[in-house]
Amino acid sequence: MSLPTKKKSGTAKGKWAKLYWAVPAALVALLLVVLLAKWITGLAGVKDFLAAYPGHSELPEGTPAGFPAWLAWQHFLNGFFLLLIIRSGWQVRTQTRPAAYWTRNNKGMIRTRNAPTKISLALWFHLVLDALWILNGIVFAVLIFATGQWVRIVPTSWDVFPNALSAALQYASLNWPTENGWVNYNALQLLTYFLTVFVAAPLAFITGLRMSSAWPKNAKALNKAFPIEAARAVHFPVMIYFVAFIVVHVFLVLATGALRNLNHMYGGSDDVSWVGFGIFAASVAVMVAAWFLARPLFLSPIASLMGKVSSR
Predict the structure, then answer these.
(1) What is the largest CA-CA distance in the chain?
(2) Going by C-beta distance under 8 Å and a sequence separation of 6 or more, which residues neighbour residue 310?
(3) Which residues is 184 bridged to in the sheet?
(4) Which residues contact 7 (CB under 8 A, 6 or more apart)?
(5) DSSP string, 247-307
(6) Alpha-carbon torsion (123, 128, 130, 131), positive or negative
(7) pTM for the whole structure
């Protein structure tokens, strides 16, 4: 019995050793990036480039300023669903023995000729969250195009790319670009939001759909054009992208004027007050509570409304 214990202990020590060296290595790498960026931005030609491209593109005339109330709700719901999607997705990926299983009720609104497939409760939760996230995304897309807010996260001129490079150099040199998110994002933010909303989110949806039981298994031509292996190869990196985006996004919100930034999104004004922070803190409390309540004990009664929950 001692041999497996030693092996497990050795594996754990190896993981901690990697983490022990990874942290200082990352700090050294960041220091080198900052020093390199400071040297580059000190060059005469680069100074001229930064003066010509300050880091943001001019928005078309008539672009709305500020953030409407519906966008605050959309932002919260998007973060809420995405957080739980990442949690449940990681469970699906790493779970070897699910605590419970779920089988769809084939007598409800959705009926199929073949018997429903039994899936883990974690996968059921993941799919339900996906559906709610996609629904929220559709509402968001309709509203931003209906209200003109789309202009703020969709490139409308080619100078967004040199301005994005300028903003990246300013961030890397710790001489961060001037922030005025109430009126206009800098070009790097704009491209990142565009990539997140119009590229990463659709990729997450279509690859997740390809791996789900809802995908038509007998469509040979479609399955050949889009094999499940390709979906699996893309789906997990997209999740990693969303995790990285959330970490960087929250860090920059807090580091570039937390009260003003939070008031933009949650307080609905350009004031520097604690209103937005209070609403943000309440939303974080809701997310933390949902994180801990997302367990079989609490999920099973909800899942049983849509099908049968079993232990095996």
Answers:
(1) 73
(2) 100, 101, 102, 103, 118
(3) 180
(4) none
(5) HHHHHHHHHTTHHHHHIIIIISSS--SSHHHHHHHHHHHHHHHHHHH-SHHHHHHHHTTTE
(6) positive
(7) 0.89
The Cα 30–Cα 21 span in angstroms is: 14
The pLDDT value recorded for residue 235 is 95
Query: Between vectors from CA 269 to CA 267 and to CA 274, what angle results, nearest 5°?
Result: 50
Which residue, among 236, 233, 145, has the nearest Cα to 197 in the 3D structure? Answer: 145
Segments in 148-200 forming alpha helices (H): 160-172, 187-195
d(CA 141, CA 82): 17
Identify which of 152, 161, 157, 155 has the alpha carbon closest to the alpha carbon of residue 49: 161
At position 46, the amino acid (one-letter code) is: V
SS3 212: coil
pLDDT means per 10 residues, the chain with 312 residues, are: 49 64 84 94 94 92 90 95 96 90 81 79 94 96 95 94 96 86 93 97 94 84 92 95 96 92 92 94 97 94 92 84
Q: Which two tokens stand for residue 43?
A: 């060059």
- Which residue, among 188, 196, 182, has the nearest Cα to 163 in the 3D structure? 188
Tokens 């928005």 label which residue?
Answer: 59
175 contact partners, CB below 8 Å, separation of at least 6: 41
- Predicted confidence at residue 2, as pLDDT, reads 44
Alpha helices by DSSP H, 65-186: 69-94, 121-147, 160-172
The helix (run of H) or strand (run of E) holding residue 96 is: none
